[in-house]
Amino acid sequence: MVNEMGAGRGQQGAFRLTANDVFKKTAGPWLWGGVMLATVFHFGLFAFFPELRASDVSFGVSEFEAIELPPEVEIPPPPEQISRPAVPVVSTTALEEDITIAPTTFEENPVENLPPPPSDASRLGDQPVFTPYTVKPEIKDRRTALRIVEGNYPKLLKDAGVGGTVNVWVFIDTNGIVKNAQVQKGSGNRGLDEAALKSAREFVFTPALNRDKRVPVWVSIPITFSVKG
Fold it and tell me: Which of 30, 68, 128, 167 could bridge to 218 as Cys pair (CB 3.0-4.6 Å)?
């Protein structure tokens, strides 16, 4: 009897189920249950999911307007620097001694060699012509004339030591007023020539006389611009 009980226990130990056997037996129902649950969930999701609509993503095209650009402006080159005269002409003669009137005599100008008088006396002051006179005109105030020349001396030329002499024709009326002035012989510097003309127009003379009558005359006077040391 003891042997039978031992045999029975041996058979019972041989048929005991392991954990792997238990998992295999229960895995099938759980797998199919999960598949069916997932299928029902997806069908429900597709059935009750909100409807999707494509939104309008169209865009408009703006019309471009052509703009005309102004023409390119050319920048002119800078002006050339004014060159200083290579050899300045500096006069050392005193100004008072240079403002003189060239003498005009009948010995130097014989009557037979003189040009005929102008046909239109009103145009006598247009161009230098010979006019006979017996008493030459004189500058009334030489100190004033000196100040006039000094005041009209271009500062740039004076500072640079540029000087020179300009022979000027002046037309003097019967009151001793200068009515016209022209360059007879320039100094070679335009600035000095213009300053000499301006100065000559400001001079005041005594009237020229032909015997005892006042006459308008053309006379030549030298005007010298000098830098005093």
Answer: 128
